[in-house]
Structure formats: C-alpha cells, structure tokens
Amino acid sequence: MKIEAVDFFYLAMPEVTTAADGSQDALLVRVRGGGLEGWGECEASPLTSIAAFVCPMSHGVCRPVGDSVLGQKLDDVADIHRIAALVERDSMDLLQAAHTFSGVEMALWDLLGKLKGEPVWRLLGYRSSEPKVPYASMLFGDTPDETRDRARQVLERGFQAAKFGWAGYGAGSRNTDADHVRAAREGLGPDALLMVDAGQIWGNDLEAAASRLPDLEAAGATWLEEPFHASAYDAYSALSARSSRVRLAGGEGAHNVYMARHLIDYGGVGFVQIDCGRIGGILPAKQVADYAVARDVKYVNHTFTSHLALSASLQPYAGLSDHRICEYPAEPKSLAVEITREHLLPDANGQIKAPDSPGLGLSVNAIGLTKYLVDTEIKVGGRTIYATPSFT
Amino acid sequence: MKIEAVDFFYLAMPEVTTAADGSQDALLVRVRGGGLEGWGECEASPLTSIAAFVCPMSHGVCRPVGDSVLGQKLDDVADIHRIAALVERDSMDLLQAAHTFSGVEMALWDLLGKLKGEPVWRLLGYRSSEPKVPYASMLFGDTPDETRDRARQVLERGFQAAKFGWAGYGAGSRNTDADHVRAAREGLGPDALLMVDAGQIWGNDLEAAASRLPDLEAAGATWLEEPFHASAYDAYSALSARSSRVRLAGGEGAHNVYMARHLIDYGGVGFVQIDCGRIGGILPAKQVADYAVARDVKYVNHTFTSHLALSASLQPYAGLSDHRICEYPAEPKSLAVEITREHLLPDANGQIKAPDSPGLGLSVNAIGLTKYLVDTEIKVGGRTIYATPSFT
C-alpha cells in the first residue's frame, strides 16, 4: 500500500498543571493507506512535534519528517526500516524529528499489522506475547503518611509492584527522602516490588545520589531510576559501582538506539527503560531489547500516557519471558483513558500482555475524543501548513 | 535588568534547496531588556524552534522554553547559568528545547555584554581574543575537476585552509572519493590545510570509513569529520585506533555538554566541533572548550550560517591560542551575509578574531532583512501564540 495521509490530533485536558503527569495532553497520529488506518502517539509537546512534521525544509538534511513518510510504500517490515533510515538521514539536523517520528512509526506498525492480520509483536519476530507484571507508576505524596496511603491503595487495587517518584524526592534532605521510601514500603507490604524514580534530580552529583542508597537498600527497592541527567554516564557508572542490591534504571530520555546502548555499556544500568514515543518508535526499541538480552540487562517500557502507547511499548519485548516488569500508568487523566475503547487490564494473576489482535490490538475512540481536541493552526508564508484535522 | 521580550524572526531565501547548505534560512532571536537588545541565532528548522518556545506546557518538565526565560533577571553571568539550568530542568522532555535555547542564550550574552560594555569572551574569563585560521567550508564538486577548481578558488581568495564534504562523498566508490580528495589537495597546493567531511554517511560502518583512510592520509588531510552517526562512539573509537595521521573530528550534533565529552572520551576524536546554535549556546560550548583543553583535544567551532553565529561560535575558545582552526562559511547565501552590518573578515595574515566590541560585537541589519522575513502565525485553542514580530 501507499501511505496516503498522516494526521496529527493535539488533545489536552481542560487544565494542564506543572505536576509530573504526562497524561495531561497527547499527540495522536493517524496514518491512512489502502483503505486501512493505523494509530500511534508521540510523547510530549504536541505543537512542537507537529511543527517538525510540517515545517518547511531548511536544507537537505533538515527536512520535515513528513517528507520521508508521505507517499511511501508500506508492504512489509523492511519498509519501516527504510522509512526510519530516511528520517534519520534527511532530518539529521532537526532535533525534534525523533519524537515526531516515534508516533508515526507506531502507527505504521499498527497499519502494517492490520494489513497482515498479525499483532505487531509477531511481525517483530516473537512467537508469543508473554505476561508482564505491571507496576503502578505513582507520585510520592506530600507527606510520608500520604505516600503510605497511596502505596496501600495500589496494593488494594491488586498491583504487585509500584514505583514512586518526583514530588520533591531528592530535592530536600536525605531523611525526608528516607521517610517517604520507608512509608512506601510499609504501604506496599513486604512482598510487592518497590521502585524509586529520582527524575534526574541530582544532575551529575554522585554523592547526593549515593547518600540515598542505604535507605533504598533498607527498603528493598528494586531500582533507583534516573538519578542523573540522561547523558551523565560517568555518574551512572560510578553510582552503579557503589550500589550492591539496588540496581540503576534509566533510558527514557534516549532518542536513538545508541543512547540506550551507551547507558548500558558506559552507565552500567541494570534496567533499560525505553519510551517508544521518544526513541523513534517500536523498531529501535526492539533493537534495544535485543541488546539488553545480549548484555544481561532487563528491558522495561517507559509509559505514562494512554493504553495505545502502552500496547506499543509492550511490543518490543513482548516475547521476552525473562523481562517481566512493565510500567503501567496508574493515575491517568480521563483523556489518556478515553483514547482507546479497550484497555490492557490485569488478568487474574495481576498480569498484562501485549494484545493478540492485529496491529497494536486496540481501537481508538476517535469521536469520543473530540472534546479534548485543541484547535491548532500553523500558517507559514501565507499558506496554512497545519490545521486540526477531523476525526471522520 | 529584566528580560522583557524575546522575539523570533524566521528568515529564508526565496528558494530553499536540498543542498547541504545551512545558510538558506535562519532563525534570528532578539532579546530586549533595560533599554538594550541582544541578538542570537538558532541553528535549523525555524518553525520547530519557534514552536518549542511558545508551545503550551505538557507537564511540569515539558514546559515551553519561554517559561524559563521571560521575566527573568539578567545582571550577571550567573544569571545565564541559572536560566540555562531552568531550561534544562523544566524542558527536560521537550527535545527541541536545546536548539531553541541556543539562539536565546547567544542573545542573552550579547545583551549582557552590552550592559557591561565587555565582549562576551571577556565575560567568559578570557583575557585576549586570539587569531584563528579560518577554513573555507565547501561542498565537493560534481566532478574531481570541479572540486579542484573550487579548491583553487579558495586558495586565490586567500584561505590557508579548506574543508570539503557532502555532495556524494562516501556514498559512491572509494576510488571516486579518492579522486575528489586528491583533486582538492591539488587545487589547494601542498601547504594549505585540507579537511574532509563525510556527513555521517557511513552510519556505523567501520570498514567503509576505514577504507578511505589511506587516500586521506596520502592527501595529507588534517581530519576526517563525522564519518558516523553522531552517537556511534564505538565506531569512532575503532576508526580512531586505526588512523595514524588523520584525526577524527565530530561534535556538531551535540545538544548538551555530555554528548561532546562522550565523543572525546568514548569516541577518541582529535577535534571536537561545537555548534553554539545547537548545544545550548555559548556557556555549554565554553565548558566543552575547557574539557578539550584538559583532554588535549582541539576545539573547533561549527558554523555555516551568518557572522552573528560565527562571532558567537568564536567566543567559547577565543582565548585559546593553541586552538587555531575555525570554520568559516565560505559560500553563504545573501541572507546570511546581510544579517550583520559588519563582517569578520580575514586580516593581512588571513586570520580572524572574535570582535573586541561589547557583546557579540556585530550589529544586526534589522530593517534590511525584512525582505527575507517568512510571515508565520501559530494559533492554539483560538489564541495566536506566535505571529511574526516587527523589526522596529
């Protein structure tokens, strides 16, 4: 088939706050061709990602992402490789391109899966979709008591794992942080997995991060996530060498395969966390998963938006039965919930799987999303190069 | 003073082609405060970089760059550090932010320099502005004869150094590449410095790159630039180990200090090339220059647009007398030439220097640029969040 149209839908909650909650807006991507449509989702800053798709060319290797996608042939997995290589080359100097293409690439997989009647994970070469243990991705409370209550609620909802982060963690005293981590463990009970996300708070300050390790170890934390700037491999490596039981996790900031590999090779992380909405989509994420297997590092998705993004983020490691932990948006805004008609709900064992149905296996609730549409228009040189499309 | 206004001017030539010529459009930034104004320039994709400044917030660490700049205090160098840290934190998930802030940051330095009556290089701690040897940055010709002619013309114009690249180099046979490199050397004569830019053409294909080394060594090339993807440190390192006289150069793709340091530490480059229009401006570039000095690597600017960008790109290593090579746009489009009233022209020794006058030391030819203005408007949710401002 030929890629006939790529449409971007900028959605947002009526109010967007400074909370570390990525489900407050979304950029849905619809790709149409051969009478079918596929859907994907870009991570963060809808307007900027739209601009990178429609912007006028600056020169030969700073072309809009759209130039590498529209009108292309899409009949097989090799076509996605080819289109991705085109984007990488022709948008080399357009920084946002990786984020923009991520959502488009997901939609290409969804479309190809529908064409072939196969789930994406099978097109990726996996023979089965293995169960994953979803962890509830939560913000710390304002007080340790609040953190404890949140952890209890997570347990009551049936989760066997939870991650707490942000909300001041790492910015105050070591003692306050320790109180929160201890409270989270108390709330979760002794058996559930506990992870902690520092959200890059220490920059490259090794000692600040290292000072938290004893309290994390005492609480039996599985990992400490993003202690440092996404590219501060030296600090990662040094902290990794000083930590015995708590492994480091990171990788969500990777916008190409190299960056994720570097965090493994130079940073010494034990868990590599990939956001398919940032790294360029499902294919580069699968390459990271392969690399993680080879390096004995665990692959984990990074997802805090819709179940469309969740399904996409499960595909790259769907068949890896030893890579079992999965980020699960536990407090999404209604917008993120309503993007798909179906949801990836935990089964009787509290586990989820990438769907068996074709493509990403979920249908988009297009008409129901109209109320979240942010009407957007971009005019350049007197010509409208982007206007919010219609769902129909 | 307080930063009162930040205005973006999208400029373009009437026709923009797929040539590897970055001077075909420009994004000028004007920052106003305290009755003064400073100017800077972002590298590539004006529309996308504007969007990253004005876009609605997605969440707490995906805020528009504007939120970290507008209304801020600017009285001293420490304020630029502080504002840069704000952008890094609050726009963590906005990929384009580094490119957008680069032009703003240059303008902040220009403004601060004017406030203090000092050139930027002095504010950076240098005591002198040392002469640099400009190299003409050229595209290879379509034929070796054309390449030879171009090299001769460069020599006749008084350049003592030239870099050739792109235009198919690396994409065809080794013999064709060798013919072009030999022709370039013939045209330049035996004494001028010759550099070759592969424009990432070999991805991470070590053997393809290594096969060109003998011909580059035979032609006495000073460096081979960007043989690989900007993040392919393994390939850089392996090629570096196999090259005796020709050093590797790279770094223009770095959008933070870490990436440039990694190319030195993990990639083994001999020359680190920084574009102040991408790495986040002058301050991070200065940090890379300091690091290069410590690691015995040569710092080089990456610039292929206006002399405003050229002045900005000279500041970070202005005081380093041992780091003498400087990229000089040799075939800029009229737009790039007309951005500044003054130009950094080679002196009797064929050398250039960062200006001694306050700020970046060049004045912007605002009214004269009106003919290049690309009328642009961005509307979100019924509100115009960007419209091309007036130069007056």
Q: How would you describe this protein?
A:
Two copies of one chain form a homodimer. Chain A has 392 residues and is an alpha/beta fold. Chain A folds into two domains: 5-119 and 367-387, Enolase-like, domain 1 (2-Layer Sandwich); 123-338, Enolase-like C-terminal domain (TIM Barrel). Chain A contains 14 helices and 13 strands. In chain A, the strands form three sheets. An eight-stranded parallel beta sheet of chain A has the order 10-9-8-7-6-5-4-11. In chain A, helix 1 (46-54) packs across helix 4 and helix 11 (257-265) packs parallel to helix 12 (282-294). The longest helix of chain A is centred in the first third of the chain and has 20 residues, at 97-116. The two termini of chain A are 21 Å apart. Chains A and B meet through helix 1, helix 11 and strand 12 of A and helix 1, helix 10 and strand 12 of B. Strand 12 of chain A pairs antiparallel with strand 12 of chain B, so a sheet runs across the interface.
Summarize the structure.
The structure is a homodimer of 392-residue chains. Chain A is α/β, with parallel strands linked by helices and 392 residues long.
Features:
homodimer; 392 residues; alpha/beta; Enolase-like, domain 1; TIM Barrel; 2 domains; 8-stranded parallel β-sheet; 3-stranded antiparallel β-sheet; 14 helices; 34% helix; catalytic activity (chains A, B); Mandelate_racemase_N_dom (chains A, B); Mandelate_racemase_C (chains A, B); Enolase-like_C_sf (chains A, B); Mandelate racemase/muconate lactonizing enzyme family protein (chains A, B)
